[in-house]
Amino acid sequence: MRHVDVAVAGLGLSGAAVAWAATRRGHTVAAFEAYAPGHRRGSSHGHARIYRRAYLDPFYVELTGRAGRLWERLEIEAGERLLDRVGGVDHGPGREPERMAALLREHGVAAELLDPADAAARWPGIRFTGPVVHDPEGGVIDPEATIAAMTRLAATEGAAVAHETPVRDLEPDEDGVRFRAGADTWHARTLVVAAGAWTGPLLGGLVPLPPLTVTQQQVFFFAPREPGPWPTIVHGSSEEALEMYALPEGPWVKLGEHLRGTVTTADTRDFTVDPEARERALAYAREWLPGVDPVPRSETTCLYTWAPGEDFVLDRQGPIVVCSPCSGHGAKFAPLIGELVTDLLEGAPPIDRFALRPPRS
């Protein structure tokens, strides 16, 4: 049997961040991924996710600031740019631009509140009909490059890293958790489950989880009509509607919906793009993104794991830590997630909103 302080199940953005943070703090770490690097089965593939300070919840505005400083540290240690701060725009009544701009300024963000004509002059590829918030700290994260960088840094600090090695057969005991990974039996003082949509099946009732709903989402890639920089975009078209989002990825503009897609599981999803979602994306591009050719050049699917209230689940029960930055907005927090989970490993209490059993209001 092989022994470590910390084992990590899952090497997406969150698992790689935990491996990096825990090794940096002196823990012996073994990290396992069930599939090959860059696989397309989960939630961390591709080369573009939104980083933004622009939340309407001050709790997350504060956390994004902490995460931003850790992105800068990660880039220094990795020696490469992983977050391209192209800026972000939020518009539409559902984003409450006036309140959002005021909240960002309260947190030290040099946010601008623009009228639609000024915003359209700055970003002619986007249609605006009301006030627009510009978040200059916003940008685009490269998740695959980030995972590779954090995994490399963890391995340099001594972590054992194994791909195509699923974790299974968990057996908690008085000293930690015994489990199988590949052909080996391991024992860890603490096991961090950062398995995304596989979290519930892997834990198999060992930890009482909140309801976690897995959905298949789809995104579409459009060609800009003219070369030039694009910001990230979050558009809430009404107070009731969930948002559309867009961001640059390579030569394309990537467009998707932040809503609950088709309910599925990690192992039974069909990878088929919903034709109704495709039609909605085409209609949105025609109406709101005049700077793109409104015919998708490509499309793909990914998984969201939704938690109640769209918060995260970061908590410990006995020797098991549940690490699930859920609901489609966790990528921007990746290096901070590593720190928060390592705090849990070292005995810190969970953040109330991320606890397995949140305190009653």
- Helix-strand pattern: EHEEHEEHEHEEHEEEEHEEEEEHEEEH
Shape: globular
What name goes with the CATH superfamily of the largest domain? Answer: D-Amino Acid Oxidase, subunit A, domain 2
User: In angstroms, what is the radius of gyration?
Assistant: 20 Å
Distance between termini? 45 Å
Task: Could you tell me the CATH topology label of the largest domain.
Answer: D-Amino Acid Oxidase, Chain A, domain 2
* Number of helical regions: 8
- CATH architecture of the largest domain, by name, is 2-Layer Sandwich
Structure, briefly:
It comes from Actinoallomurus iriomotensis. Residues 5-344 form the FAD dependent oxidoreductase domain. Helix content is 26%, strand content 31%.
